């Protein structure tokens, strides 16, 4: 027997399993670098991929808007932005630089969060030239075309009016866009709610290509690329970070090919092959990603990629902060069944997509097909039951129930950190 440690909040649940039990883990522990993040970014900026240097792009441009990430993304902006700003001013010492915060569908970023992200010096220098995107204010956004799938492509007017549009960002696996970074700084980053919801529609979320680690044929990704092209995103600098949120690699240049280089780099560390099993245990990576139920389809989707038809998924997440979104919660809790809401999503017209429908749809896609046993804080028992899955206080209890359902000879696969792996053939 061996012990597997499953991340849960700031601790672990441990389980004794047979020695031959597959344990799917990424190689992200090897994502390390002896170099300073600031130095890593400089090297990337000095060798842009399929693009002129940023200082060359800045020549003759009176202004530039840099799309920066919001408070929900651990992008090490203090490694990236100084280099971008330096090159812009090298190309044009008088260039006016605006920082546009890509909030996407999230709440506005606060001043304190901006100070934490940028550092005091950068914040003080740019505080009068920081714009926080608002997806829900049509007066601040403008239509620039249509996405390939049909919906209006509406972006922030600040980006539209920029003589030069560039972005920072980071690359990680994403459970329906394939990977974050690159084109995602535009859509959903600085797009109107109409465009975001059109891109995150039921049909697209249901696509077998809208999965973790998949870009090719992914309809969500394809629309995102088109939006970035229409917005004239001219240059990116994206980084890969380790588990301590330290920069370990950087990719600068063309928003498509530089991003793809970063994706290929990261895939070497996080891709794992499926180990099909009747019972799969997964997590949302512990704190901070397992604080609410809204985030949990990420870890659940890792199990979905390797569980047998009719199998059991055991999901571990504290959900200490509750559901994470009223519309998310009610979409699932108020539905007749998980399948009923899933079918509703499939038949919801693209332009009528509901807020947060996409995460609720993925939750229901999994719950309708597999038996989900959910381990969470005791205070969240009713919440978990409302979300149409079985509740358990401990992993031992959930595992005993799984054996009861699937039998003593059922096969088992363990995923200690469900958000750190890309499970695919």
From TrEMBL:
InterPro entries associated with the record: LarA-like, LarA-like_C, LarA-like_N, LarA_C, Ni_dep_LarA
Top-level taxon: Bacteria
Pfam families with a match to the protein in the record: Lar_N, LarA_C
Residues of the LarA-like N-terminal domain: 8-213
Residues of the Lactate racemase C-terminal domain: 272-423
Gene3D superfamilies: 3.40.50.11440, 3.90.226.30
UniProt-listed NCBIfam families: Ni_dep_LarA
Protein name as catalogued: Nickel-dependent lactate racemase
Organism the protein comes from: Coprococcus intestinihominis
Protein's gene: larA
């Amino acid at each position: 027997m061996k012990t597997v440690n499953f991340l849960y909040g700031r601790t672990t649940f441990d389980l004794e399993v047979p020695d031959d039990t597959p344990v799917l883990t990424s190689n992200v522990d090897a994502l390390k670098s002896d170099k300073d993040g600031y130095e890593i970014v400089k090297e990337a900026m000095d060798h842009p991929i399929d693009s002129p240097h940023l200082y060359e792009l800045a020549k003759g441009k009176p202004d530039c808007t840099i799309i920066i990430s919001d408070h929900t993304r651990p992008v090490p902006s203090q490694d990236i932005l100084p280099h971008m700003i330096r090159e812009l001013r090298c190309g044009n010492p008088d260039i006016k630089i605006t920082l546009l915060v890509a909030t996407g569908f999230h709440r506005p970023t606060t001043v304190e969060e901006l100070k934490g992200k940028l550092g005091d010096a950068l914040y003080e220098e740019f505080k009068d030239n920081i714009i926080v995107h608002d997806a829900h204010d049509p007066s601040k956004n403008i239509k620039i075309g249509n996405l390939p799938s049909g919906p209006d492509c509406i972006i922030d007017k600040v980006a539209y009016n920029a003589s030069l549009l560039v972005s920072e960002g980071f690359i990680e696996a994403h459970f329906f866009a394939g990977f974050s970074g690159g084109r995602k700084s535009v859509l959903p980053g600085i797009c109107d709610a109409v465009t975001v919801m059109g891109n995150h529609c039921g049909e697209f979320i249901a696509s077998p290509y809208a999965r973790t680690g998949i870009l090719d044929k992914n309809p969500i990704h394809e629309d995102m690329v088109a939006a970035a092209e229409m917005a004239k995103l001219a240059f990116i600098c994206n980084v890969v970070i380790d588990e301590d949120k330290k920069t370990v690699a950087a990719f600068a240049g063309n928003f498509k090919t530089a991003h793809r280089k970063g994706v290929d780099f990261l895939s070497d560390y996080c891709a794992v092959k499926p180990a099909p099993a009747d019972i799969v245990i997964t997590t949302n990576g512990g704190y901070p990603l397992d604080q609410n139920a809204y985030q949990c389809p990420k870890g659940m989707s890792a199990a979905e990629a390797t569980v047998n038809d009719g199998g059991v998924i055991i999901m571990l997440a504290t959900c200490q902060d509750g559901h994470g979104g009223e519309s998310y919660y009610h979409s699932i809790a108020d539905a007749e069944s998980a399948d009923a809401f899933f079918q509703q999503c499939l038949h919801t017209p693209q332009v009528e997509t509901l807020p947060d429908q996409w995460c609720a749809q993925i939750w229901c896609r999994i719950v309708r097909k597999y038996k989900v046993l959910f381990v969470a804080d005791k205070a969240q028992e009713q919440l978990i039951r409302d979300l149409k899955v079985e509740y358990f206080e401990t992993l031992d209890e959930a595992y005993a129930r799984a054996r009861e359902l699937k039998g003593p000879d059922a096969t088992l696969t363990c995923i200690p950190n469900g958000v750190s792996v890309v499970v695919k053939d």
